[in-house]
């Protein structure tokens, strides 16, 4: 059993609700409903890297000012080399950009860390993971997308699990403390397989904000993940 800290959170498991599934005109109230989460996952989309558009730094700054939990920013944007540092500068606890979109991923991760944010890199379902194995120390978290990025409410893709398993194996073998995150279609019926494959950080949009009590949904996801966690 994993240790429980004084906030009731389970050590080693993180549940990050995605506000993409929240009511955008009631953002402050929506954020208050997920105060028991570890981070709030903030999806930035530019209608270029993905075929959908959300918001930019101005909105993220207001979320940062209002959120009871730290921000986990997921940038689904082109040219993160140009834009990602701005999100670190406004105080996001972690900033994750896509490997497919970055020109110099390691240099960018170093800049994010220098500003004071955790540095994350994300891979789409069809992107190979092996290229990251020698770069694990350059990142604080690696996001294995379990749907095609762009939209909430899609079905979890189990075919991404072998990739996550290989990554978890390499991270363990190399003694890395990198967090392994999954995002897309995570809910009560899918979180166990992601935890078994080695994920420790779970993004869930519809499964949390679609629940009548988001706090209960977070607790249930946390318990299931802890039960199946393999680290
Ligand atoms: C998808 C986003 C996800 C999305 C997850 O591109 O990156 O964070 O909000 O939503 P659910 O949990 O509903 O699949
Ligand atoms: Zn996301």
From TrEMBL:
Substrate binds at residues 18, 74, 150-153, 183-185, 205-206. One of its GO terms (molecular function) is D-ribulose-phosphate 3-epimerase activity. A divalent metal cation binds at residues 41, 43, 74, 183. The keyword Zinc applies. It holds the Pfam family Ribul_P_3_epim. Keywords: Carbohydrate metabolism, Cobalt, Isomerase, Manganese, Metal-binding, Zinc. It is an enzyme of class 5 (isomerase). Pathway: Carbohydrate degradation. Binds 1 divalent metal cation per subunit. This is Ribulose-phosphate 3-epimerase.
């Amino acid at each position: 059993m994993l240790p429980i800290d004084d906030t009731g959170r389970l050590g080693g498991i993180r549940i990050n609700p995605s506000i993409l599934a929240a009511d955008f005109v009631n953002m402050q109230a929506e954020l208050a409903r997920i105060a028991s989460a570890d981070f709030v996952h903030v999806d930035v989309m530019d209608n270029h890297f993905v075929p959908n558009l959300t918001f930019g730094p101005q909105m993220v700054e207001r979320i940062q000012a209002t959120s009871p939990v730290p921000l986990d920013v997921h940038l689904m944007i082109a040219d993160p080399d140009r834009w990602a540092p701005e999100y670190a500068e406004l105080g996001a606890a972690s900033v994750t950009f896509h490997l497919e979109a970055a020109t110099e991923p390691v240099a960018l991760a170093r800049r994010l860390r220098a500003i004071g944010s955790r540095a994350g890199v994300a891979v789409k379902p069809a992107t190979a993971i092996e290229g990251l194995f020698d770069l694990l120390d350059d990142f604080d978290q690696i996001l294995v997308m379990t749907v095609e990025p762009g939209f909430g409410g899609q079905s979890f893709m189990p075919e991404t699990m072998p990739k996550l398993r290989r990554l978890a194996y390499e991270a363990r073998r190399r003694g890395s403390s990198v967090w392994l995150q999954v995002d897309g279609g995570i809910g009560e019926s899918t979180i166990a397989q992601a935890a078994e494959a080695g994920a420790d950080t779970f993004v869930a949009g519809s499964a949390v904000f679609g629940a009548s009590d988001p706090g209960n949904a977070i607790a249930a996801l946390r318990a299931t993940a802890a039960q199946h966690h393999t680290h």
